[in-house]
Please model this.
Amino acid sequence: MKIALTGATGFVGQAVLDAASRQGIAVRALTRKPGETRGGVEWVDGSLSDTASLKALCEGVDSVVHVAGLTNTPDVSQFEEVNVNGTRRLIHAAKSAGIDRFVFTSSLSAREPSLSLYGASKANAEAFVETSGLDFTIVRPPAVYGPRDKDMFDLFRAAKYGVVPVPPKGHTSIIHVDDLAECLLALAAPGLATGATLEPDDGKQGGYEHGELAKLIGEAVGRKVLAPHLPKGILNLAARGDRLIRGDEAKLTSDRVGYMTHPDWVCRPERAVPADIWTPRIGGPIGLTMTARWYESEGWL
Model:
């Protein structure tokens, strides 16, 4: 099997390349910057806005695994351009190339599109996938963590200082990036979970209470931590402060506060990936510890 992969140089995409290498799956990968030399990987220069590169990406492959997406941006109009219009262009390229199988990496935030522009853009992109006529599966991951991740890294760094502020009380599911990568590849074969919207996680029913997750991150870095629950108003003020300090590189934005403060980001059991296709290998406590060790080995912590 040969797959076309978008987002290959990003956090999740790199894990997909690693998993494909382990499994001997050939990949043609879209990139906006020169990709590192990897066995079994053919790079295509371009982007989701470049129809010519999308055509080259899709020619002669068996399926498309669409990982690329914008999760954070100072220009909120880019959510629609990248996540919605980029997906629409990729669908057109896949159909023009005669590809039937399309795996779309969405987000659990698409479940509540009114809470954030990011979530709304993912929900709108899902609508294009659902009406594409392709053999599709939509995958809505919860919070993804693991090596190379820069978003949840802030929580690990905070844990080193003994305080991990968290949103108001609620629960969230998580998934290690290696598990998500293997899930996406398992679904790349034609005819699996066709038309389904799936919510893979680490297997912990009911997910993790926000404070519980913070304390597990503390254990991963060898610290007991305080995990104060911050109200939405305080988080919005913090988002403004992050914008002042880090500018366009700010990670806490008002859009993110919108979905962070929702109390239920737990994956639904009825939308679990069928066990005969994929099951998670990495539980939260072990995965968080593995991630902390990676941060330490790379000098991040």
Observations:
- The mean pLDDT is 96.
